[in-house]
Amino acid sequence: GSEAASEQGQEEEVEDRLKEHMDNLQDKSAKVRQAALRSLRLALASKTLSEFLLERRLTLTDSLEKCLKKGKGEEQALAGTVLTLLCLQMGSGPEGEEVFHSLKSLLVSVLTDSTASPSARQSCAMALGMCCYIAAADLE
């Protein structure tokens, strides 16, 4: 009984922190956004959060889009990594495909931008490849 309640409390605490990190992706400060991206990267890499993310995938996708468009260097690289992990969490169903298709052209844009940092371009290439492998329904 108390063990289940404790586990429930821990899960709510994790979700609250994730919501806070997602909110921080909208911050004006690049340092705050990068810290939020690092925290999300760690969370998505270490725990299955499919249910939590399912409800918030559009919000997170919009935030990642802004980080990729307006961010520079490290922020773009982190956003690409978080996007890859989001695709992994969403899987090969319609949700994963939706996330991939909404950011595919932006990933290609950063990848082909010769002024973007090498780490951002590499991260976007990895995101494009992984998300395409996981979530692209059409063979092209």
UniProtKB/TrEMBL annotation:
| Region annotation Disordered: where it falls in the sequence | 1-21
Interferon-related developmental regulator N-terminal domain spans which residues?
Answer: 5-139
Q: What InterPro entries would the database entry show?
A: ARM-like, ARM-type_fold, IFRD, Interferon-rel_develop_reg_N
Taxonomy, superkingdom: Eukaryota
Q: Which family does it belong to?
A: Belongs to the IFRD family.
Query: What is the protein name stated in its UniProt record?
Result: IFRD2 regulator
The species this protein belongs to is Poecile atricapillus
